[in-house]
Specification:
18% strand; 854 residues; 40% helix; 26 strands; alpha/beta; eight-stranded mixed sheet; eleven-stranded mixed sheet; single chain
Length: 854
């Protein structure tokens, strides 16, 4: 058939299958990647084609550049790395099962040739060519992690004990959930039979984690064991800790964990890449990653331990993400049996249910796969929006699927219009029923041919062969020598300081600089203050007159990171690069290095020295011992990747912003210049607002003025009318008086006089009403003018206080804008001053590479 056109976000899973005629049609089945944010369940018996379907789904996700965490309890998903775009027999030959060849009565070579031909024909039948297979190989990086083993890529589980980067004030519930899961996993790994929630063992461990994590402090097993024997909290509920959990019993619990720590086998759990979900999803360059967690070699308790820790870390990562309706990442669980049961409560169940309930809001899709639907919790089934149902073995499996489908339909607000029972019964090998809550009806389809060779489960030795030997230095790590001045030419070791008597060296320091591999770049921080300044500073610290006995130059060891972080905001036309040198020192133990506590150095890389400071006599220099593993180029490269992630999550460019004005203090702009610019902008805004206010108020005032003018015009008319009426009234009165004296009739005259009087009174009343109306309007005009002035004063006052409205916004870098240019073993000079302050001899240390105290 013809494969559908390549379209990102659309997964090519197969073709519609005609159940009535028992044959595949030519209509391709494309699955919208966004539908996976509502999760999926795939069920089917052995031989149903379940693995082929899921491998095809994961291949499509890889082409679509969707990162994924793949939990592989059996070893089937490792087949994703068996991709042979050229489809040559010699590519298949190392992975041919000799027993399969023998059953076919063929040699391994012959069987490899026939397998290559089968794969070539199968892919061609589905319209898949070599170009699409090359695209699959290019888009995503595959890594097989083998916790507890070095056969693949080891996974350092101690990263799971690192304090989560969440705000305790707002995320305390989420952190406590993670603590609960971590405690349950640890108890299971140590084979301690105790309820992780109600037992005193679980409560003690939870309190220890909460104490340290609330303060942002990381834990490791050694620190945990010490905290068990000497708890940092003094009370458990109403009882003293020694009453609640006596010291002897706590010692036994500590011994259980110490047995783990002391076991040579357990040391492999402390090696390799950290259990960091972001790194499992993306490479240092930001390329999507499909990280396969191979756990087939582990015991049940070890599997539960690593799965629980992974899920808890995934929840923490998820809650840091922004909301989205697109598919951001996948969690794929190849065989969920025992991890999400319907009745029991293993430590993995709660985080899995949390991911199913909350993952869709963050674009995290969860795919659960099982042979037996009865092994999955009912709540998990109803949370799945997509069902891939293959051939089932037992009737109870079908009943469980039907019950789950009914629940999913109810949750989606749909009615059960399809006879799922009949459809499921008629399914054959590689034929699946897909029920998607986003589709109008279910789809019966035949799965396409997998591009990866489905060889079957791989053993640990086969995994080792598949991944090959890891490179000593990852290609993406910039050699430190490219940025930092080398101690000597690249092939040579730095010149050690002259040997002296060991007795002259202070405790914990060596008279001769330790030798390290030529692959490790070393650098020296500059010595900017001399012994005299150091002695004066020591006296200044003491606050009294001191007698200096001895001043020695010590070189402490640390890790130097040279990085550039770029901050870009196109809307504000910001493109700022910040160069920095960070010195991280962890004492004698560099495990779990926290770049958050690193010192930001005030000088640039070109000020670094290529050799230690040359001084005479017994002053040194003396050198600290290098922490175990730090003199290894691979370790330093790994720490460099940690620095990249730390800078990405923790770097920010603070912008002083006035939200209303929309202006901000540009990087490098001095405070004075910004204040002037801010004041000018405030003035312009104030004037604009006053103009707008004036325009509005003037309209109202003008309306009143016009009314006053109209009323005044009316008043003039009323006054003229009143004057005329009054004149008529007096004339009429005189006429009436004359008639009275001449003897003429007065009845008509009296009536006329009365009428004229009334008219005069009415005219006078009109004049008074006009005067009152004018007075009211003039008062209204005055109030409007006063209100205008008050509003202008308020605007002026508000913009005079413009600085009070300033806020700070953080501009975060993009991952591609974090460039760790180099990491190197760093020697930091410190003056050790021994003096007498009159009460006895004291010792203090003064950093020689900074003038901060001088």
């Amino acid at each position: 058939m013809q494969a559908p056109p390549e379209q990102l976000g659309s997964f090519y899973l197969g073709a519609v299958y005609d159940l009535e005629n028992g044959k595949r049609t030519e209509t391709p089945v494309n699955y919208d990647a966004r539908d996976l944010v509502t999760h999926a369940v795939c069920v089917g018996m052995t031989g149903s084609g379940k693995t082929g379907l899921c491998i095809g789904l994961l291949e499509e996700a890889a082409i679509d550049r969707v990162p994924a965490l793949l939990i592989d309890p059996k070893g089937d998903i490792t087949n994703l790395l068996l991709q042979f775009p050229e489809l040559r027999p010699e590519d298949f030959e190392p992975w041919i099962n000799a027993d399969d060849a023998r059953r076919k009565d063929k040699s391994v070579e012959e069987f490899a040739a026939s397998t290559a031909e089968t794969w070539r024909n199968g892919l061609a039948d589905w319209g898949i060519n070599g170009e699409r297979m090359k695209l699959l190989a290019e888009q995503t990086q595959y890594t097989i992690f083998t916790p507890g083993s070095e056969m693949g890529t080891p996974l350092n589980i101690m990263g799971s004990l690192v304090a989560p980067k969440l705000d305790w004030a707002t995320e305390s519930e989420a952190i406590r959930e993670r603590i609960g899961g971590t405690v349950a996993a640890l108890l299971g790994l140590a084979d301690v039979s105790a309820d992780p929630v109600r037992s005193r063992e679980g409560i003690l461990l939870a309190n220890i984690f909460e104490h340290f994590w609330q303060q942002g402090e990381d834990l490791d097993l050694e620190k945990l064991i010490a905290a068990i024997t000497n708890p940092p909290v003094k009370k458990m509920g109403a009882f003293e800790v020694d009453v609640f959990f006596p010291p002897k019993d706590r010692f036994n619990l500590a011994m259980s964990f110490n047995t783990l720590l002391a076991s040579p086998k357990f040391q492999s759990w402390l090696m390799g890449e950290p259990l960091d979900v972001d790194k499992l999803f993306y490479t240092a360059e930001g390329k999507p990653r499909h990280s396969i967690l191979y756990i087939a070699h582990l015991s049940d308790s070890e599997r539960m331990f690593i799965v629980t820790l992974l899920l808890e870390n995934l929840i923490t990562w998820m809650r840091k993400q922004s909301g989205t309706t697109s598919l951001r990442a996948l969690l794929y669980f190849d065989e969920v049996f025992g991890y999400f049961p319907p009745t029991a409560e293993p430590s993995s169940k709660r985080p899995l249910l949390t991911l199913l309930k909350q993952g869709r809001a963050f674009g995290l899709g969860v795919v659960l796969v099982t042979q037996n639907p009865v092994d999955i919790d009912y709540k998990g089934l109803t949370n799945a929006g997509t069902w891939f149902i293959g051939k089932l073995q037992a009737e109870r499996d079908k009943e469980r699927v039907l019950a789950g489908l009914k629940g999913a339909l109810t949750a989606a607000g749909k009615s059960e219009a399809t006879d799922f029972s009949t459809l499921i019964t008629r399914l054959g090998n590689r034929v699946f029923l897909m029920h998607n809550v986003n589709d109008a009806a279910p789809t019966i389809f035949h799965t396409r041919w997998a591009m990866s060779y489905l060889r079957g489960p791989l053993t640990l030795p086969q995994v080792r062969t598949l991944v090959g030997k890891p490179e000593t230095t990852p290609a993406h790590v910039t050699p430190a020598a490219a940025v930092l001045p080398p101690a000597e030419p690249a092939q040579a070791l730095p010149a050690p300081a002259p040997a002296r008597q060991a007795s002259a060296a202070p405790a914990g320091f060596l008279a001769t600089q330790p030798t390290v591999s030529p692959e490790v770049t070393q650098t020296y921080l500059p010595c900017v203050i001399d012994d005299g300044v150091a002695a004066r500073l020591a006296g200044k610290r003491a606050g009294v007159q001191v007698s200096v006995k001895d001043v020695q130059l010590l070189y402490d060891v640390g890790l130097l990171g040279a990085a550039a972080v770029r901050f870009v905001d196109p809307k504000r036309a910001i493109d700022e690069q910040v160069d920095m040198l960070l010195l991280a020192q962890g004492g004698r133990q560099m495990t779990g290095l926290d770049w958050g506590r690193a010192e930001r150095l005030a000088f640039s890389s070109n000020q670094l020295a290529s050799a230690p400071e040359a001084i005479s006599g017994d002053q040194g220099p003396f050198f600290a011992e290098i922490p175990e593993g730090l003199a290894n180029a691979k370790t330093i490269s790994a720490i460099a990747k940690d620095l990249t992630d730390w800078l990405y999550y923790n770097s920010q460019l603070d912008l002083t912003v006035h939200p209303d004005l929309g202006i901000f203090r540009r990087p490098g702009e001095d405070e004075r210049a910004f204040a002037i610019r801010l004041q000018q902008a405030a003035r312009e805004r104030r004037d604009a607002e006053v103009d707008k206010l004036h325009a509005k108020a003037e309209k109202e005032i003008q309306r009143v003025v016009e009314k006053i003018a109209k009323e005044q015009q009316g008043l003039a008319q009323d006054q003229a009318k009143a004057q005329a009426k009054q004149t008529e009234q007096w004339v009429n009165i005189a006429e009436s008086a004359l008639n009275f004296f001449t003897g003429r009739s007065t009845r008509r005259a009296v009536s006329s006089a009365t009428s004229k009087f009334n008219q005069a009174q009415q005219a006078a009343l009109g004049v008074e009403e006009s005067k009152q109306a004018i007075a009211r309007l003039q008062e209204e005009q005055q109030k409007l003018s006063e209100q205008l002035q008050a509003d202008i004063a308020a605007i002026t006052e508000r913009w005079n206080q413009v600085a009070a409205a300033l806020t700070t916004e953080q501009l975060k870098p993009r991952r591609t804008d974090v460039d760790v240019r180099a990491t190197a073993l760093a020697w930091a000079p410190v003056w050790q001053v021994r003096y007498d302050d009159g009460r006895g001899e004291r010792v203090t240390s003064v950093p020689a590479y900074t003038k901060a105290e001088a």
